[in-house]
């Protein structure tokens, strides 16, 4: 029995058990990760799994059931069980569910990959991890740490509407960290980003980072931070580096435009959104410079795919256009509830989890400025880089970010280093104050976006550039 | 020992140290939002995890393919993998053979067969009761049942087996606030038994809290005395577990903990105890070390931190049974923390925003302060001092002269958790500890309400 056969059997069994729509995904997953600290490998994990998840719609209620390593009988049982679960949902019923149309695609898609990351010798990977962490430690970091992660996932998707899609998506990435321990606090510098850098790519992703070339700098900066003055408290002009801007976008735009949150479907845990659908097309989200695009077609983005997990082909669309909110991340059912005509952003954390609305690649279109121009144009402000902490309320309005490092900006010049920089604000007020935006974007990958119950880990991408904001509160401390 | 464990160990080459864990699980979550069930999911499966140490090198991995070929591939792959890795100088060996602590001899003490066999209809019935008793307010949340059986074996002859069941309800009722947004009230409960979850009681409690949050006012950021309900205290426990009582952080001098010093208020005693009667879990850790009650703070004096075999070796201690199975990345930490409650008569249900008579007793002593239901999205600014920022959620109220006088809109805080519990800062401890719903960390902490002298709020709802 092929993977398509197993998925088809599950769908047919769900239909026979009373479902009016069903889809199923068979997945084979191979993951590998390695961590090192101060010249020694501290963890090497290789995991393989296989399974099938089937989703059944009975009346207006969903049911989902997943089993590992399915054969034909297990797949059929899974289909029947998903329908039974859906039927139980009907005892606490809701409004009718429809699905916006999605053409019945028969397709095959694979992400670009120049160098198969699972085929790179472990000895080479181990040597890289141990050598850079030893270098960090020798350069003065109390802790020199590094990590990489590889995901190799194959999916076969079948729906009762005729979808039959297979995808092979390989993702890879990593990074390194220098931590210094002071008498009362610790300091950390990361390269290239606070969790590393990830994408739909092969081992070329890691080679391109050139980790050895950056060990001395981040170790020196981590040492210097222990002695640097604290970021002063007050309201000022803030320039935010690209690698921090990506998380700002993720938290205060990406999650806010998830349609399931807007509809209240995540109210109990992940939360809702400050956005109201009545404002779609009119609401000013940010300044004229703000153009945010939802783009799962972006080559190399960690949130890239050919088709989402309900068979909708990847499409690029605006979420914010010239500062106006114009689009959402949606699925076929949530879009129908909202009266929209597009889904395309439904994804699941493997075969055992039910697909839900998730970010894909969500980020900036480039602006007109360079970072140097932003610094030149700033008489008095703070330039911050790389995330250290992040927190935002359940409506995605009130945020506070801490960064690893900052510098004073005085009369157009970058001045002394500042430790423990933080900035805080309210989403739309903050975005409307953006008066300069960088022209060169980097698509950063976020490999650990949490959402849902049971919790699911999502992989998202964020094109980001440095940007400048006015009248921002900085220097909040404990 | 299960057949799978025996089979894997029989495939491990001679002279190689190995440990195998087989976890069979089944979990189901019935989610509801806008007062109807909108997602209803279940999954089942078996995962085999193997860690082996060959010629001074260590590799670990797992598979869900448990036929003979799949198990053979797992062993072959990891054996080959280990040979290509740099030496692991910090390897501390596999756990020696030995029996479980007498308190955990029955590895299945926390299993309720009825919960293990719970049906979608039974979960839906609890949801229905919650929605029904929410007094017409929109309701959202979930009812979850899960069960797991873990079997462990290693090449030193250690052989253990245990399991648990868990059932939880986590729900909010949502009132329309005067500022246009929802005013949420929350109620949660967890147990080994689905039968213990009273959907009607919890729905009514959530609705009472939601009604009491309508018309919240802005308060200026400042230091306020607080009464933290058990759910909010649970966030303190998670923060302390991750950053302070963590064997990895301690070995690397990144932890606030200094054993032997009076770092906390004398009223505070903190333990980690996975074997307690009112919690659930497997009675051994990922390395096959039996779990035991571990004192972390006694009468304000730090006693020690949790260890796995690796961190214990580094600092010259013994493993306390806290290997988490995630390698050495996060470090060993407590998953079953509990603050010792003050003790007293059984708590009774209260009305309005105060969850029960325990909390009401603490509120009665406050001249001016805040009652906090929940913390949300808490993240560390500095791990060494455990300075955390986050927000309140699901209800905050002003307390004046021992009475709740007004709902308050959510506030942001930036606060060192150890500093909030420092000597002289704990003004009251609730009479009873509540089992807290596991939300995302895999922990099953227990906490009473706390009255603390000061909490540093750094921003209001408007910034």
Automatic annotation (TrEMBL), chain A:
This is Peptidase C69. Pfam families: PmbA_TldD_1st (PF01523), PmbA_TldD_3rd (PF19289). GO terms for biological process: proteolysis. PANTHER family: CONSERVED PROTEIN, UNCHARACTERIZED PROTEIN TLDD AND PMBA. Gene3D superfamilies: PmbA/TldD superfamily. Transmembrane segments: none annotated. One of its GO terms (cellular component) is cytosol. Keywords: Hydrolase, Metalloprotease, Protease. Residues 234-457 form the Metalloprotease TldD/E C-terminal domain. Belongs to the peptidase U62 family. Residues 22-86 form the Metalloprotease TldD/E N-terminal domain. It comes from the Bacteria.
TrEMBL record, chain B:
InterPro entries: Metalloprtase-TldD/E_C, TldD/PmbA_N, TldD/PmbA_sf. Residues 222-453 form the Metalloprotease TldD/E C-terminal domain. It comes from the Bacteria. GO terms for molecular function: metallopeptidase activity. GO terms for biological process: proteolysis. It holds the Pfam family PmbA_TldD_3rd. This is Peptidase U62.
């Amino acid at each position: 029995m092929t993977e398509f056969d197993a998925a088809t059997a599950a769908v047919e069994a769900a239909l026979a058990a009373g479902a009016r729509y069903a889809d199923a995904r068979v997945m084979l997953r191979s993951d590998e990760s390695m961590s090192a600290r101060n010249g020694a490998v501290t963890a090497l994990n290789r995991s393989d799994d296989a399974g099938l998840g089937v989703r059944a719609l009975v009346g207006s209620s969903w049911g989902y059931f997943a089993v590992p390593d399915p054969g034909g009988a297990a797949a059929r049982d899974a289909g029947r069980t998903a329908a039974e679960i859906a039927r139980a949902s009907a005892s606490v019923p809701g409004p009718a569910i429809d699905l916006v149309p999605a053409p019945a695609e028969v397709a095959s898609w694979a992400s670009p990959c120049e160098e198969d990351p699972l085929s790179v010798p472990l000895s080479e990977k181990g040597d890289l991890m141990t050598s850079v962490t030893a270098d960090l430690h020798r350069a003065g970091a109390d802790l020199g740490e590094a990590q990489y992660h590889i995901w190799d996932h194959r999916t076969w998707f079948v729906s009762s509407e005729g979808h039959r899609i297979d995808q092979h998506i390989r993702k890879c990435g990593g990074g390194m960290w220098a931590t210094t321990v002071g008498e009362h606090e610790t300091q950390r510098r990361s390269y290239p980003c606070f969790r590393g850098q990830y994408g739909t790519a092969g081992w070329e992703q890691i080679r391109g980072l050139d980790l050895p070339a950056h060990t001395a700098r981040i170790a020196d900066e981590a040492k210097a931070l222990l002695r640097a003055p604290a970021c002063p408290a007050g309201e000022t002009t803030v320039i935010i580096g690209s690698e921090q801007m990506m998380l700002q976008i993720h938290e205060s735009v990406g999650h806010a435009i998830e349609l399931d949150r807007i509809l209240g479907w995540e109210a109990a845990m992940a939360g809702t959104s400050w956005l109201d659908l009545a404002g779609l097309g009119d609401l000013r989200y940010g300044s004229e410079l703000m153009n945010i695009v939802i783009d799962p077609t972006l080559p190399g983005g960690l949130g890239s795919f050919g088709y989402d997990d309900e068979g909708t082909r990847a499409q690029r669309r605006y979420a914010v256009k010239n500062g106006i909110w114009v689009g959402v991340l949606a699925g076929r059912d949530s879009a129908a509830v909202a009266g929209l005509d597009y889904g395309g952003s439904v994804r699941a954390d493997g075969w055992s989890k039910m697909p839900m609305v998730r970010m894909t690649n969500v980020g900036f279109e480039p602006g007109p400025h360079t970072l140097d121009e932003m610094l030149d144009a700033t008489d008095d402000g703070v330039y911050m880089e790389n995330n250290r902490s992040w927190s935002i309320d359940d409506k995605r309005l009130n945020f506070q970010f801490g960064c690893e490092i900052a510098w004073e900006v005085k009369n157009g010049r970058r001045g002394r280093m500042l430790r423990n920089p933080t900035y805080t604000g309210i989403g739309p007020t903050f975005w409307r104050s953006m008066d300069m935006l960088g022209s060169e974007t980097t698509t950063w990958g976020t490999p650990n976006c949490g959402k849902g119950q049971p919790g699911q880990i999502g992989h998202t991408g964020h094109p980001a550039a440095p940007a400048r904001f006015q009248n921002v509160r900085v220097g909040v401390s404990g | 020992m299960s057949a799978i464990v025996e089979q894997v160990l029989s495939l491990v080459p001679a002279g190689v140290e190995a440990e195998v864990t087989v976890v069979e699980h089944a979990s189901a979550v019935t989610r509801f939002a806008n007062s109807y069930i909108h997602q209803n999911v279940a999954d089942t499966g078996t995962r085999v995890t193997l860690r082996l140490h060959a010629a001074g090198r260590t590799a670990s991995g797992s598979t869900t393919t448990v036929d003979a070929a799949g198990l053979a591939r797992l062993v072959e792959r990891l054996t080959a993998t280990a040979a290509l890795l740099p030496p692991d100088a910090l390897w501390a060996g596999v756990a020696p053979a030995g029996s479980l602590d007498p308190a955990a001899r029955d590895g299945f003490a926390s299993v309720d067969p009825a919960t293990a066999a719970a049906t979608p209809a039974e979960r839906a019935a609890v949801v229905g009761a919650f929605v029904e008793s929410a007094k017409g307010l929109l309701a959202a949340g979930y009812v979850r049942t899960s069960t797991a059986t873990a079997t462990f074996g290693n090449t030193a002859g250690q052989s253990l087996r245990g399991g648990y069941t868990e059932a939880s309800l986590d729900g909010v009722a949502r009132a329309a606030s005067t500022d246009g947004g929802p005013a949420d009230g929350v109620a949660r409960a967890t147990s080994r038994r689905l039968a213990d979850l009273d959907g009607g009681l919890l729905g009514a409690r959530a609705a009472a809290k939601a009604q009491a949050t309508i018309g919240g006012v802005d308060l200026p950021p400042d230091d306020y005395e607080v009464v933290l309900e058990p759910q909010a205290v649970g966030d303190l426990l998670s923060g302390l577990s991750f950053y302070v009582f963590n064997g990895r952080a301690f070995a690397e001098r990144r932890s606030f903990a200094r054993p032997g010093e009076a770092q906390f208020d004398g009223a505070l005693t903190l333990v980690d105890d996975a074997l307690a009667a009112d919690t659930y879990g497997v009675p051994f850790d990922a390395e096959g070390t039996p779990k035991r009650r571990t004192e972390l703070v006694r009468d304000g004096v730090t006693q020690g931190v949790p260890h796995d075999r690796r961190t214990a070796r580094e600092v010259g201690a013994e493993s306390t049974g806290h290997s988490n199975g995630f390698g050495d990345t996060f470090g060993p930490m407590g998953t079953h923390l509990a603050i010792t409650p003050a003790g007293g008569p059984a708590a009774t249900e209260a009305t309005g925003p105060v969850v029960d008579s325990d909390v009401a007793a603490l509120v009665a002593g406050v001249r001016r302060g805040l009652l906090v239901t929940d913390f949300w999205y808490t993240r560390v600014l500095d791990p060494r001092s455990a300075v955390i920022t986050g927000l309140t959620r699901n209800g905050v109220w002003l307390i004046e002269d021992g009475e709740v006088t007004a709902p308050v809109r959510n506030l942001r805080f930036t606060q060192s958790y150890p500093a909030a519990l420092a000597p002289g800062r704990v003004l009251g401890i609730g009479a009873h500890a509540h089992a807290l719903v596991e939300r995302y960390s895999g922990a099953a902490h227990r906490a009473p309400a706390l009255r603390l002298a000061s909490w540093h709020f750094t921003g209001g709802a408007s910034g």
